[in-house]
Amino acid sequence: MTRPTAIRRLNAADPQFARHLDHLLSWESVSDEAVNQRVLDIIAAVRERGDEALVEFTKRFDGLDVARMADLILPRERLELALTRISPEQRQALESAAARVRSYHEKQKQDSWRYTEADGTVLGQQVMPLDRAGLYVPGGKASYPSSVLMNAIPAKVAGVAEVVMVVPTPRGEVNELVLAAAAIAGVDRVFTLGGAQAVAALAYGTQSVPQVDKIVGPGNIYVATAKRHVFGQVGIDMIAGPSEILVVCDGQTDPDWIAMDLFSQAEHDEDAQSILVSPDAAFLDRVAASIDRLLPTLERAEIIRTSLEARGALIQVADLEQAITVANRIAPEHLELSVAEPEQWLPRIRHAGAIFLGRYTAEALGDYCAGPNHVLPTSGTARFSSPLGVYDFQKRSSIIFCSAEGASALGHTASVLARGESLTAHARSAEYRIKD
Amino acid sequence: MTRPTAIRRLNAADPQFARHLDHLLSWESVSDEAVNQRVLDIIAAVRERGDEALVEFTKRFDGLDVARMADLILPRERLELALTRISPEQRQALESAAARVRSYHEKQKQDSWRYTEADGTVLGQQVMPLDRAGLYVPGGKASYPSSVLMNAIPAKVAGVAEVVMVVPTPRGEVNELVLAAAAIAGVDRVFTLGGAQAVAALAYGTQSVPQVDKIVGPGNIYVATAKRHVFGQVGIDMIAGPSEILVVCDGQTDPDWIAMDLFSQAEHDEDAQSILVSPDAAFLDRVAASIDRLLPTLERAEIIRTSLEARGALIQVADLEQAITVANRIAPEHLELSVAEPEQWLPRIRHAGAIFLGRYTAEALGDYCAGPNHVLPTSGTARFSSPLGVYDFQKRSSIIFCSAEGASALGHTASVLARGESLTAHARSAEYRIKD
Q1: Measured distance CA(A214)–CA(A198) in Å, rounded
Q2: 3 state DSSP class of A337
């Protein structure tokens, strides 16, 4: 445990830098054929046999001794009970985090709009919440109460009438903090189900589990594969890859702070990725020294070491300008700008899930309680996707209400274009509305 | 051609109605194993051999006699040339439609926002356009200039710097209207590529084709399968099913108009779905008579007849109240409310891609030029998804900038929650920021 951590050093001045960076970032999650086939079989069984299949799979995979579906339902009172089983300090922390998350997300809510044209034609967009959302919460070690808040609160803020949570309880282990978070977030129903069978139940519904419109929340490879398969039948959030942080530092932050920020990402799992970019080579050395000194003091030292050695890097750049270029290439899930006057760089950041500005803004604050969501696009998908938000639980319908005059004018244009596409029924339907 | 159209009649009063409706709506698009494997092979070849593979596949699949990649690039001047090759009336119609589509979509544009808390902590959301979008346009019969407008304009309104279009030209057939629409919509680059190879090129980039951040646009089963496979590497829009319309009519609209509105959907292809719901049984009879009388006069009569007989329906309900319940169960792509005072029903519509209000608002007007997008959620996915819009080409980054005081307060909460999750590096990272 005391050997130095062999964390990769890269230099942007190296002619091979782009290639090395590509290699560092390369990640493809592959569901192998065996996983795929098992998941398809599970989905088929749940669609066919409903509750019966759920009970059977839960006995087999979660080692639960249950006889009927009723044993897999947690009533609302059980969630309330959990609130009394956690410490008052924990309850206070969950409630304070929930309040801040709710307050931030309320600003994301989108409203319907419309406008009327000169001829009386009305155009607009009606925004509505989804009817029902499903929230997958992993069991065991990756069972995070903070994720319950981050997934359920945006749905409730959007106005989703019913939020249904599934959480496996392998060998009967119940996480009281998770249930307490569900109570605080306003989760409506909880089933102690997990794996592909839980995803299938939410997507298609069974006698007891209601069909939802969208499934969100993290899970293992079976859950991710099942979500991919049911996509289209229901909506899904992103398929998350390993978590990552990119810290850009000007060399003036306490190196222990930066080391700990890198650790906080690396402790998630061996595939997590922590990268530091700085124009100050001596600072990179100081952070490396902090890493070596602090690592042995951490509970998850082995996971962190594996992660840092496999996927971490300390990258030297010419200046902060170049650091930002590297950041945009990486499109990181979490970007810490641990620099003086971080705001000046903000308009230049093109791709990042969440941006943490200044030396005080540790990623961990955002993970739990700053307000923004901690479900963020990973593996460079910040190029085209966004944090989980209220907008993920709202949907839009276009509104078109033509006046007689408006329809007549539009009818001419539509007729020409429809005939250009050889769609003559379209043309004639439009032409009926043209005034003589 | 003159036998009556055997369009299904359903009655919501029938105890079996729910089951019949489920059956009517059932649709699952399946990519069979052979298609899947061919697509995976094509993607692998394009990733490995780039342009060379593109030239090879295009020769083989599109029957094009091309020697090198340069032969598959259409310069901007070629698009401008197309504007002179279409009729002035067509150009005028395209420009008028584009202006209306642009004007509507500008209202969808989302702005960055932020707020400052009492202790100086700043929270917000930075909204940015994607860097580059790819637009797939089918070749041959399904090559629609209106789709070019509907896919490219939202991207340009969002501020996407480069819109790259791919369109196959089987046996060298070029659709001048499609190129003209591309010129008007501001498409930046065009490659005459199609199929899974075009999708792979956009997703991974080749020597000539730039990698994009998101791929939108309709395509055949190979294109849809390829989009599903590259999802994650790039963003994609929805995987569209067959197009559908649901017309709700109070019995007071000219039955010929309604028949033609149903035809306009059915003429797309044999799998398209046209459904009419009315409380007026005699009106359903009148529409059936209009269908029989008008059908033989249509260019695509065979397609329409097949579609109506396989997937169409005339549904009798007790009242408009019940019609709206049926509409919400169907969650149609297109919903026409051909009734008196349609506005009163609007707040009750929970799921629909686009809502056409009043007797004058034919779906065809919305397909071409009313302003809203014609790329809409199909097969009931309006339960959880929205029309294609500017928001599909924008993405968000969360902004967190803690003051020293703010970080200290948040540090306490984060520390408690992180320790509850056994993530002690998270806890210690937060604790560093707590003031003594």
Answers
A1: 13
A2: strand
Amino acid letter, B225: T
> Hey, CA dihedral for B429, B430, B435, B436, is it positive or negative?
negative
CA atoms within 13 A on the CB side of B418: 28
Selecting from B145, B235, B425 the residue whose C-beta is nearest the C-beta of A264 gives: B425
Is B90 annotated to bind a ligand? Reply is: no
Residue B1 reports pLDDT greater than 70 = no
Q: How many residues are present in chain B?
A: 436
Stated pTM of the model? 0.95
B411 to chain A, any CB pair closer than 8 A? The answer is yes
Best of A341, A417, A431 to mutate (most B CBs within 10 Å, chain B): A417
Searching chain B, which residue's CA lies closest to the CA of residue A93? B413
The answer to whether A368 contacts B420, with C-beta atoms less than 8 Å apart, is no
* DSSP single-letter state for residue A234: B
* pLDDT reading at A362 higher than 80: yes
Spell out which residues of chain A touch residue B432, defining contact as CB-CB under 8 Å. Answer: 254, 256-257, 260, 362
Q: Which ranges in A126-280 belong to alpha helices (H)?
A: 145-158, 176-185, 195-204, 221-230, 255-266
Instruction: Identify the bridge partners of residue A336 per DSSP, sorted by sequence position.
Output: A247, A356
Task: Specify whether the CB–CB gap between A133 and A390 falls below 8 A.
Answer: no
Whether residue B427 has pLDDT greater than 60: yes
Contact A372 B398 (CB under 8 A): yes
A364 and B426 Cβ atoms separated by less than 8 Å = yes
Tell me how far the alpha carbon of residue A18 is from its chain's centroid.
28
Q: What is the mean pLDDT of residues B160-166?
A: 97
pLDDT digits (tens, 9 = 90+) for A15-31: 999 999 999 998 876 66
Q: How far, in Å, CA of A312 to CA of A272, rounded?
A: 8
- Banded model confidence at residue B232, pLDDT cuts 50, 70, 90: confident
Residues B49, B209: Cα–Cα separation, whole Å? 13
Q: Which of A209-213, A378-382, A422-426, B28-32 has the lowest mean pLDDT?
A: B28-32
- DSSP letter at B266 equals H
* Residue pLDDT, tens place only, A162-201: 999 999 999 888 999 999 999 999 999 999 999 999 999 9
Residue A152 CB contacts under 8 Å (≥ 6 apart), including other chains = A135, A163, A165, A181, A182, A185, A186, A187
Mean pLDDT value across residues B84-107: 97
Task: Write the CATH number of the domain with boundaries A33-110+129-236.
Answer: 3.40.50.1980
Task: Read off the tokens for A234.
Answer: 């229901």
First-to-last alpha carbon distance for chain A, in angstroms, is: 88
Determine the distance in angstroms separating the CA of B424 from the nearest CA of chain A, rounded to an integer: 7
Same fold, B8-27+241-370 and B33-110+129-236: yes
**Percentage of residues of chain B with pLDDT beyond 70:** 99
Interior CA angle at B86 toward B242 and B67, to 5°?
75
Domain boundaries, chain B: 8-27+241-370, 33-110+129-236, 402-432
User: Is residue A186 within 8 Å of A158, Cβ to Cβ?
Assistant: no
Q: Which pair of structure tokens corresponds to residue A344?
A: 């000046």
Q: Give me the mean pLDDT over the A287-294 stretch.
A: 97
Nearest CA in chain A to B144: A421
Q: Looking at domain A8-27+241-370, what is its CATH homologous superfamily?
A: Nitrogenase molybdenum iron protein domain (3.40.50.1980)
Selected residue of B144, B346, B410 to mutate for chain A interface (largest A Cβ count, 10 A): B410
Q: ipTM value of the model?
A: 0.94
**Is-contact B145 B37, C-beta < 8 A?**
no
Task: Say yes or no to pLDDT of A395 above 70.
Answer: yes
Q: Is A354 exposed, middle or buried (0-12, 13-18, 19+ CB in 10 A)?
A: buried
Structure tokens at B114: 């932020």
Q: Which amino acid is at B65?
A: D
Chain B residues 265-294 within an 8 A CB cutoff of chain A:
266-268
